[in-house]
Amino acid sequence: MSEGNTIFSNIIDGTTPADIVYDGGDTLFFRDIAPKAPVHIVAITKKEISSLDHMTDEDQALLGKLMKDITIVAKQMGLSEGGYRVITNVGNDAGQEVKHLHFHMLGGEPLGPLRCR
C-alpha cells in the first residue's frame, strides 16, 4: 500500500526529527517544515496508507480517530474559535508529494477562499 520509506515513516520511527505537537498513539501531528499559514500542522496515521484511494474497510476506524484527533489538536493550537482548514491531496495531479496519507491543518489567520491556481 505504501511506496516504502517516506519522510513520514522516518518521523514516526524517530530517525528524522519533527516538531511534534500531539501523539495520539496511532496518529501523529507535527508542524509543517514549509508552512503555508501561521499555524500549519501535518496530521498522519502511524499506519502507512498511501492515500485515501488506498484505504481499506479496516482503516475506517483509524481515519475516524484521526479526524477526531484533528479537533483535539485544533483546540490545543487555538484554532477552533476562529476556524481552520483541513486538506488532503490524493495523487500526483492534486500535488501529493509524500505517498503517505496526511492532512494539512491550516489556520491562525483568515484564510479566504481556497485558490488552486
Structure description:
By secondary structure, this protein is of the alpha+beta class. 21% of the residues lie in helices and 22% in strands. It contains 2 helices and 5 strands; from the N terminus they run αβββαββ. A 5-stranded antiparallel β-sheet has the order 1-2-3-5-4, with helices on one face. The longest helix has 17 residues, at 60-76. The protein is globular.
Q: What are the SSEs and their pairings?
A:
Elements: H1 7-13, E1 20-23, E2 27-31, E3 39-45, H2 60-76, E4 84-87, E5 102-107
Antiparallel strand pairs: 1-2, 2-3, 3-5, 4-5
Identify the overall geometry.
Answer: globular
Distance between the termini: 30 Å
Encode the helix/strand succession as letters.
HEEEHEE
Give the % helix.
10-25%
Order of strands, widest sheet: 1-2-3-5-4
How many helices? The count is: 2
In short:
This protein starts with 6 loop residues before the first helix and ends in a 10-residue tail after the last strand. It has a five-stranded antiparallel sheet with strand order 1-2-3-5-4, covered by helices on one side.
